[in-house]
UniProtKB/TrEMBL annotation:
InterPro entries: ATPase_BadF, ATPase_NBD, CoA_activase_DUF2229, Dehydratase_Activator_Redct. Residues 1-133 form the ATPase BadF/BadG/BcrA/BcrD type domain. This is ATPase BadF/BadG/BcrA/BcrD type domain-containing protein. Residues 228-447 form the DUF2229 domain. It holds the Pfam family DUF2229.
Amino acid sequence: MNKVCAAGTGSFLEEQAEKLDIKITDFGKIALEADKPARLGDRCTVFMESDLNAHQQSGVKKESLISGLAYSIVYNYILKVVGKKRIGNRIFFQGGVTNNKSVIAAFEKVTGKPITVPPHFDVTGAIGAAILARKTIKGKETKFKGFRRSAASYSVNNFTCKYCSNQCEIRSVKIEGEDKPLFYGGRCERYEVEERKGKGKNIPNLFKERLNLLLGDFTEELPDGRPTIGIPRGLMVFYQQFPYWRTFFKELGFRIVLSSSTNRKLITESLEKQQAETCFPCGVMHGHVYDLLTKGTDYIFLPSIIDSKAEKINPTKNYNCPWVQTFPYMARAGLRDNEAVKKLLIPVFHFKYTGKILNKEISSYMSEKFNISKAKTLKAMKKADRTQTEFERKLETRGHEVLKDLPEGKKSVVIIGRPYNTNDPEMNLHLVEKLINLDVLPIPIDFLPLSEENIYKLH
Ligand code: SF4
Ligand code: SF4
């Protein structure tokens, strides 16, 4: 359990308690008063949270929601962590969540077995870590402050870090007799890990380089009478195809407006606005669409992209995931009672073979919607395709340089995943910066010469 994945942790329960306006210390007592727990599923906490919102909106009682949360934590743990492993008869429950009597009760009810809670249950992990540290350090001098530190007085100050859009609430703990305060609460390690500062200084941030190449010569221009088209900063329309669409629309006389970078506020809004459960990246797209609405663009471009470009010599099917294909309809459903729904542009495009089919799809759409001639659209498409190809070529060229010259004595890792997750720092909890701080070089997957690998026969 850690702060990256909230599954089953006390921090998730604490957040939900706060949301339901109860103290975490009252959680267990209130949950045990419920007649019937709400069914909040057994999936990860992101989904639990959206189920909780839906039940709350439909008027389910607070105590049922809270006991439902306790059960969901248990079902999720048994399904995802225990999996097919056998559950024995002697069950030992440790960790801070053990403070919550309703979770213990739910475990007993679901397993039908007694649960043993050890003394010092909330620090068993720390005790284990201390034993391992003692074995590793083997009598060498350490920075251990001694047990008497627990008797020292301390003061806690809170402040909001404004260094990036996350605006984390940081707690600074000043302990009597110590010069430097301790920090916690940040989503990155800006304050917390003093010894790591300065590490990773010579490691290039290839993800920032990729973003710069993706944006190319794009700058947000001031209103000048041209129609504005909003492009959400998410999924493949931005993280994979932005060079194409920025060139295409600019060429056809549109002014392009991007939604804000993903941030905590935008994520919270997305979770409130989404109508149905989706994966996180699609959920967050709702926030980007609403952000563009507040920016007042004339249109919001949400193409349903069925498949992706394939090389003729490597003609894999390249279908996009159903969520990517259908997200635009979810966004439209969310806005059905809103005038703004008219702003959404939802064409269906097949990029598998750029050629006749795509030419027809895009030119017909632009003619129908904006009365733009086929010749003009095709000219813009050609230019857009050149920019996109150039972008992809630059990624590979930079990748070749990086692979040829990997930093000696340091680790390098390729971050595998969808570009809209691996390149959005807020979506991946600043993974790239964290690795760089550890003196590790993270490499975007599309820096590798992937097109050289023919997977047609395997696919
Ligand atoms: S993520 Fe780091 S830099 Fe950004 S607000 Fe939080 S602590 Fe500050
Ligand atoms: S492939 Fe992407 S869009 Fe599809 S479910 Fe996974 S993260 Fe979501």
